[in-house]
Design goal:
It contains 13 helices and five strands. By secondary structure, the chain is of the alpha/beta class. Helix 2 runs parallel beside helix 9, helix 6 runs antiparallel to helix 7 and helix 11 packs antiparallel against helix 12. The longest helix has 39 residues.
């Protein structure tokens, strides 16, 4: 017997090279997570945060202009004629606070849109009211559910559904590598149904993150999860062991940070604010907010974002199917020309993987 690659891998030097090569993935994850999370969250500062001042007289105009000038780009201040118009702007998420000046000043916010944005606005107008020598009354026009007092439960639901989805990609891609792609795609769709159902249980009966609209939340969770799973299963054909890093970049590093679940784009650097307009995590978070708290305003656009990511998953699995078909034909063609000396019970078109390889790939994918 010759000492081939397996012997080399079994030597101390080979084992060391094997470990070092596999350390590349977690180190890249560390760099990517640090850049993404610290870049997005370490120093939230408002920029162009839209607020209203209620009133049409000279005093309201002067106050709005003063706030605009002192804010140095932090606020985008405009005047509106009455309290009803200001409340409507909050309902449509066209503003994040409305100040009603007077002897008893009042601030209108919608914490369901973003608790952190509401807090930033309240900080500004508390100082304004204090300068006028009056206490500030804060009215929340869209409070969150009792089970989600900070308004961030939807974000953590996004995290749970995302992890369930991309970890399922690892299992389907690793343990299911010998299966045809259509079977792996079916497993992906089935897994997305289970993951989204778990998410709905978390959101409704278990933690009470929402008090109504649970069916719509489940539908968006399924669309979101299915998109991740189909994209991941398709990418696995091309990336193999690097699939874990790929899906983490797409659905953790760039996704969580741009979702608006902790800080809206108006409190983040512009890069993450730009991603917020079309990334799938933002589509889920904003879609659920719209559905549950804002009467479905702009819901169609958020659902469209999720549907486009789902369509991207369908396209990716289609491309993977073409690539795997080409590989099978390439493997079968030379085999049919060569004389067969050893009978085989395994079709040449089916890749054979050891259980150790499958286990190693799954462990990498779930971060072990």
């Amino acid at each position: 017997m010759s000492a081939g690659p397996s012997a080399a891998a079994g030597s101390p030097a080979g084992a060391l090279r094997h470990v070092l090569s596999h350390l590349v993935t977690p180190l890249l994850m560390c760099i990517g997570m640090g850049l993404a999370y610290l870049g997005a969250f370490h120093a939230p500062q408002p920029h162009d945060l839209r607020v209203d001042v209620v009133g049409s007289g000279p005093s309201a105009q002067v106050l709005a202009q003063t706030l605009q000038d002192k804010g140095d780009g932090a606020l985008s201040v405009r005047t509106v004629p009455d309290r009803g118009t200001a409340a409507e702007h909050l309902r449509t998420q066209d503003s994040y606070g409305a100040y009603v000046p007077g002897a008893a000043p009042e601030l209108l916010v919608a914490s369901a849109s973003s608790d952190t944005s509401a807090t930033a606005v309240e900080k500004v107008f508390t100082q304004v009211a204090a300068g006028q020598g009056a206490p500030l009354k804060v009215t929340d026009t869209a409070p969150t559910a009792h089970g989600d007092p900070t308004g961030q439960g939807i974000f953590f639901l996004l995290v749970a559904v995302s992890i369930g989805s991309y970890a399922s990609v690892a299992v389907i891609g690793g343990a299911g590598a010998v299966l045809r792609l259509r079977m792996r795609a079916a497993l992906a769709l089935g897994a997305s149904l289970v993951v989204s159902a778990i998410g709905a249980v978390f959101a409704g009966p278990l933690f009470g993150l929402v008090e109504h609209g649970l069916g719509g939340l489940w539908a968006m969770a399924w669309l979101y999860s299915a998109g991740i799973l189909l994209i991941g299963v398709g990418l696995h054909t091309f990336l193999k062991r690097w699939t874990t890093l790929g899906v983490m970049v797409l659905f953790v590093m760039l996704n969580f940070t741009s979702s608006g679940g902790i800080f809206r784009p108006e409190l983040q650097p512009g890069f993450f604010g730009a991603l917020h307009s079309f990334w799938n995590g933002a589509g889920f978070v904003e879609g659920v907010r719209s559905h549950v708290y804002f009467g479905g305003h702009a819901l169609g656009g958020h659902v469209l974002v999720l549907a486009l990511w789902f369509a991207a998953g369908v396209v990716m699995t289609g491309l993977a199917g073409l690539a795997e078909g080409k590989r099978r034909r390439a493997a079968v063609s030379p085999a049919s020309d060569a004389p067969s000396t050893t009978p085989s019970t395994v079709p040449s078109s089916v890749p054979v993987r050891s259980s150790a390889e499958e286990e190693e790939e799954m462990e990498e994918a779930v971060g072990v």
